[in-house]
Design brief:
By secondary structure, the chain is an alpha+beta fold. The chain has two domains: 122 residues, Diaminopimelate Epimerase, Chain A, domain 1 (Roll); 137 residues, Diaminopimelate Epimerase, Chain A, domain 1 (Roll), CATH 3.10.310.10. It has a 17-stranded mixed beta sheet that branches. A hairpin with a 4-residue loop joins strand 8 and strand 9. It is globular.
Length: 284
């Protein structure tokens, strides 16, 4: 058995395991199998994913990250995870500045640890071209999808990872919809790399409620990239203004995007908390 030091953190209820690269190297030959065990909520630590900072990356970024999801797969990007990752690296002095660059599967991401220890992340520009999301529909916005049981009007957006955003009526329960239809939509043939799924209820032009079925995880308390994708889709559909409070089961995020249907070439900014849960040592 090998003993590994770890830290558990959460952002808006989305929880993660973080470990320094020196700890990861002890068990790297056994990943991703170990990732599944560590993320198990009954027999492990319990988490939606694992992050490891890599110093001196072979890129022009300050850091690189390794990201394993709860099912052992890797993914390009995770917004709530990036906030936790940024604070972890800042507090551990893995970086010596509040604003730095991280190389991810979605490219270079720029987080900033604010004075109040919330984290603001430049999430980059949304991707709306179907072939780049990837999405096999002939358009990304307001595409009619039929899962064999229910018809949905979906909006496909990539924030470095694919999302399927669905706006619902006031009398519909977004959580129940996510539980009932999330898995089927995640695996729909229209999404060749599978997809995250967001059911969204618009409360006002400045506020929305979102329930998430996360690719590789299932129902989660929050999803940062999902919050960003939901706001982008809401703005492009004329439902929201450019700064939106996003309410998720685990907490709220502030998403800002200056884009519109005529000009989409703007970065998305996400601001929210990154909190410590506990630290420990586990034998694997």
């Amino acid at each position: 058995m090998t003993q590994v030091k770890f830290t558990k953190m959460q952002g808006a209820g989305n929880d993660f395991i973080l470990m320094e690269y020196s700890e990861y190297k002890k068990i790297q030959d056994k990943f991703p199998e170990i990732a599944v065990k560590l993320c198990d909520r009954h027999f492990g630590i319990g988490a939606d994913g694992i992050f490891v900072p890599v110093e001196n990356p072979k890129t022009y970024s300050d850091l690189e990250w390794l990201f394993y999801q709860a099912d052992g797969s890797t993914a390009q990007m995770c917004g709530n995870g990036m906030r936790c990752f940024a604070r972890f690296c800042f507090d551990k002095k893995i970086v010596n500045k509040r604003k730095f660059t991280v190389h991810t599967g979605a490219g270079k991401i720029v987080p900033e640890v604010l004075e109040d220890l919330r984290v603001k992340v430049n999430m980059g520009k949304p991707v709306l071209e179907p072939e780049k999301i990837p999405f096999k529909g002939d358009k990304s916005l307001n595409y009619h999808l039929w899962d064999g049981i229910k018809k949905f009007t979906v909006n496909a957006v990539s924030m470095g990872n694919p999302h399927c955003v669905i706006f619902v009526k006031d009398d519909e329960n977004i959580t129940e919809l996510a539980k009932k239809y999330g898995k089927a939509i995640e695996h729909d043939d229209l999404f060749p790399e599978k997809t995250n799924v967001e059911f969204v209820k618009v409360k006002s032009r400045e506020e929305i409620d979102v329930a998430v079925w996360e690719r590789g995880c299932g129902i989660t308390l929050a999803c940062g990239t999902g919050a960003c994708a939901s706001v982008v889709a809401a703005i492009l559909n004329g439902l929201c203004d450019n700064k939106v409070k996003v309410n998720l089961p685990g907490g709220s995020l502030t998403i800002e995007w200056a884009g519109n249907s005529q000009n989409k070439d703007f970065d998305v900014f996400m601001t929210g908390s990154a909190e410590y849960v506990y630290t420990g040592i586990i034998s694997v």
